[in-house]
Amino acid sequence: ERVRRHGETVRIETGQVGALRDLAGRAEALALALNDRSRLAQVRVRQAQAQWWFWEGPREVAVERAREAGSLADAGDVRTRSYVRFVAGAAYRDLGRIPEAIGELDAGIALLGATGPATEAPGLVLPIYVTLSVWRAECHAVLGDFRQGLASATDGLQMANRINHLPSVALADALLGYVRILRGEIDAALPPLETGLAIGEANGFIHAIVANGLHLGLALALLGRHEAGLSTLARATQAARSVGYELTPWTRYGAVPAR
After folding, report:
1. C-alpha–C-alpha distance, residues 160 and 163, integer Å
2. How far, in whole angstroms, is CA 196 from its chain's centroid?
3. Concatenated DSSP letters for 171-206?
4. Residues 74 and 38 sit within 8 Å (Cβ to Cβ)
5. pLDDT higher than 60, residue 259
6. Which of 113, 100, 108, 116 is nearest to 69 (CA)?
7. Structure pTM?
8. Which of 27, 191, 197, 234 is most buried, most CB within 10 Å of its CB?
9. How far apart are alpha carbons 105 and 89 in whole angstroms?
10. What is the dihedral angle through the alpha carbons of 123, 124, 126, 132, rounded to the nearest 10 degrees?
């Protein structure tokens, strides 16, 4: 089950939409035939994630799918219920509905707590805590609440280091660096972004290369280091193109800064 869920996430993030639709269609048919609410909840949350990640239709549909997944999930399935909150929060961020995004992300963090639920292995759910925390950090920063933004990003990074989950460390570095950029602390943004990019390139974590590379390229350009900035942006975009990775969640095209 763990491998299956991971495989679905990889297909979403690397653009394998056709394969994902086929897999989701079969899983949905099976869940409906068996009247299996928990299995259907997992299908719906992946559908919501794909809807958000690829901009397939209105963002509101991603929120609706996520809410349906939450209503179907077993009370003890904290992993699905918390990830539902992330997808809804991310979709609200892209809609520019930042207070609602923060509300969803807060709810997901509350479900997990500081140590994770006793019914789930920490290594399976606490990476979601990191994701919720660092996405919330950006939302606070977008509203100009940099104190809360930095606190949330730092909390996420500390959790990622505590559970020794390198993909989460790199993700937290990317968002901590971006919050620093939004605050105008460009020099302070460089260390986490450089660390996150190094982790990504050393381990082949495409999301880490893209997120940290795009933000680091921006920071370098803002410091007047234009050639280094362009080179870093090229590394990030080339890595994304090599596997069909969707850039939109990180470029934020048509989302918060464009409003």
Report:
1. 5
2. 15
3. HHHHHHHHHHHHHT-HHHHHHHHHHHHHHHHHHT-H
4. yes
5. no
6. 108
7. 0.85
8. 197
9. 6
10. 150
